[in-house]
Specification:
Oligomer: single chain
Structural class: alpha/beta
CATH superfamily: P-loop containing nucleotide triphosphate hydrolases
Number of strands: 5
Bound molecules: adenosine-5'-diphosphate, thymidine-5'-diphosphate
Low-confidence stretches: none
Shape: globular
Order of helices and strands: EHEHHEHHEHHEH
Helix content: 55-70%
Distance between the termini: 12 Å
Radius of gyration: 16 Å
Largest sheet: 5 strands, parallel
Mean pLDDT: 96
Number of helices: 8
C-alpha cells in the first residue's frame, strides 16, 4: 500500500502523517515514511538546489529537478519497500509537480505529469490524501512554524491558490485514488476522518 499526502505548504500534511504513523504502529503494520524533495541522500542535494540555493531556477529546470529527485527516491527507497510488503507513507509525490510546476508555474500540466510518471516508471499511489485549505490560511499556519520561507514559500498567495485549484481538479478527475479532506477542521477531526477511511481500505 502506497499512500501519498498532498496539499499546499502548511495545510497540515506532516501533522496528519504523524497520526497515521501512530495508527499503523498500533495495528502492528510495518511501514516507512518518506518525503519529496529530499527523501534520499542524492535527493537532499537536489532539495538544496531547489529550495535553498541563491539565484533563479528556470521553470523547466525546476520540473526536471523534482522529477530527478522522485526517480531516485522511487527506485532506491519506495519501490524496494513496497516490494518487501511495507506500507509507504509519502509526504508529497508527483501530484505536487503537476500542481506546483504545472499549474502554479504555468507549464503544461500534461507534460509535467508525463515527465513525472516516466521518472517513476508509472508507479501510482494506491491512495492520495489531499488536505484542502485556503492559501491565506495555509500561509498563516506556515508562519507559526518559526522556519523562514524557502525559495518556493517566497511565492505570493496566488501561486498557492493556483496549486490548490489544480489539486482539486486532479482529485475530481481521479476520485478513486483521492481522498479529499477539509484541512480547516481541527487536527483531531481530520485525523479521525482519515483513520476511519484507512480502516475501511486496510481490511
Ligand atoms: P505541512 O506538512 O503541510 O507543511 P504541518 O503539518 O507542518 O503542514 O503544519 C503546519 C502548521 O500548522 C504546524 O504548526 C501545525 O501544528 C499546524 N496545523 C496542522 N494542522 C492543523 C489544523 N488542522 N488546525 C490548525 N493548525 C494546524
Ligand atoms: P515540503 O518540504 O514538503 O514543504 P512543506 O512541508 O512546507 O509542504 O516541499 C518543499 C517545497 O517543494 C514545497 O513548497 C512544495 C514544493 N514542491 C514542488 O514544487 N514540486 C514537487 O514536485 C514537490 C515534491 C514539492
Amino acid at each position: 500500500m502506497f499512500i501519498t499526502f498532498e496539499g499546499i505548504d502548511g495545510v497540515g500534511k506532516s501533522t496528519q502523517i504523524d497520526a497515521v504513523e501512530r495508527w499503523l504502529d498500533k495495528k502492528g503494520k510495518k511501514f516507512i515514511r518518506s518525503f519529496e524533495p529530499g527523501g534520499t541522500e542524492l535527493g537532499q542535494e537536489i532539495r538544496h538546489l531547489l529550495l535553498h540555493r541563491k539565484g533563479d531556477v528556470a521553470p523547466r529546470s525546476e520540473a526536471l529537478l523534482y522529477a530527478a529527485d522522485r526517480a531516485h527516491h522511487v527506485a532506491t527507497k519506495i519501490k524496494p519497500a513496497l516490494d518487501k510488503g511495507l506500507v509507504v507513507l509519502g509526504d508529497r509525490y508527483f501530484d505536487s509537480s503537476v500542481a506546483y510546476q504545472g499549474a502554479a508555474r504555468e507549464l503544461d500540466l500534461h507534460e509535467v505529469r508525463d515527465i513525472s510518471l516516466w521518472a517513476v516508471d508509472n508507479l501510482l499511489p494506491d491512495l492520495t490524501v489531499l488536505l484542502d485549505l485556503d492559501a491565506e490560511q495555509a500561509m498563516q499556519r506556515r508562519n507559526q512554524t518559526g522556519e523562514g520561507p524557502d525559495r518556493l514559500e517566497k511565492e505570493k498567495v496566488d501561486f498557492f491558490e493556483r496549486a490548490r485549484e489544480a489539486y482539486l481538479t486532479l482529485a475530481k478527475n481521479e476520485p478513486a485514488r483521492f481522498l479529499v479532506l477539509d484541512a480547516s477542521e481541527s487536527i483531531a477531526q481530520i485525523s479521525e476522518k482519515l483513520i476511519s477511511e484507512l480502516e475501511k481500505r486496510f481490511d
